[in-house]
Amino acid sequence: MKIGFIGLGNMGAPMAANLAEAGHQVLGYDTAAPEPDGVSAAASAAEAAADADVVITMLPNGKILRSVADQVIPAMRAGAVFCDCSTVDVDSARAVAEQARNAGLGALDAPVSGGIGGAQGGTLTFMVGGDDAAFATVKPLFDIMGQKAVHCGAAGAGQAAKICNNMILGVTMIATCEAFALADKLGLDRQKMFDVVSTSSGYSWSMNAYCPAPGVGPTSPADNDYRPGFAAELMLKDLRLAQAAAEGADADTPMGALAMQLYRSFVEEEGGTGRDFSAMLPRFAEKSRG
Ligand code: NAD
């Protein structure tokens, strides 16, 4: 296939490189980052998109997605598919999908889970919103860039799945970290805490696969001085998107709201920027109740 790939940052570059390595013709564009091996350079987003069967975007936020969509959608061939893999607000995902459909294009929102390691290794999970035909067209590309693609429903359903998942992740990571900090103060050894909880009803991905305590459980960013991994500011972004969606849908999400507040304090006031989101454990460990 001919693929236009717009946004060649930490995630986009390895995803585009994997598509090129699998034999697809990839024309890439980024306002700042260089093209990875195997990806040709376009002079503009519109040029990257003009001849493509599928255009993939991997951009920082919904505002930038909307501006790139304005440039790219009029340039695309009828019948081609616009597939956004960024994490953005549900409203932007739906607006861009409608714009694409009105221009005679297929449209998908397909945010990912799996991080930079998953992008490099081609093991991402895609959560996809949009119609069946567009999903069928892009599925072979999801299979190269990832290990799983779940078609979640109509436009916006992929972003909805992503922010619900990450709201659970933010809440469970905080619960796991505050429980470790409490265990410390109760004199309970962290390894014993892990041995019990990881095989009891408090288990979760945060405890079992990504344990926030250094030297305990499988290797995780905690064992690398909390270098990300998944940076706290990216978790904050996703928790903000979840709260914006909850407000729009009139959903009561008190735990998600509190998780967002705690990550906002951590990132904006407590030096959490650039640290892994599991660095909530040393944050709680240093604090007292007052
Ligand atoms: P990044 O900042 O490394 O990459 C974004 C790229 O977009 C940059 O290279 C930037 O120059 C480019 N860009 C910005 N404006 C542009 C424009 N108008 N035209 C063309 N290019 C433009 O970010 P990332 O870590 O690659 O994340 C991309 C998306 O994936 C985000 O929405 C993020 O939330 C999501 N995501 C990231 C991770 C992760 O672990 N990094 C995990 C899952 C999802």
From TrEMBL:
PROSITE patterns: 3_HYDROXYISOBUT_DH (PS00895). It comes from Paracoccus maritimus. Belongs to the HIBADH-related family. It comes from the Bacteria. PANTHER family: 3-HYDROXYISOBUTYRATE DEHYDROGENASE, MITOCHONDRIAL (PTHR22981:SF7), 3-HYDROXYISOBUTYRATE DEHYDROGENASE-RELATED (PTHR22981). Residues 156-281 form the 3-hydroxyisobutyrate dehydrogenase-like NAD-binding domain. This is 3-hydroxyisobutyrate dehydrogenase. The keyword DNA-binding does not apply. Pathway: Amino-acid degradation; L-valine degradation. Its EC number is 1.1.1.31.
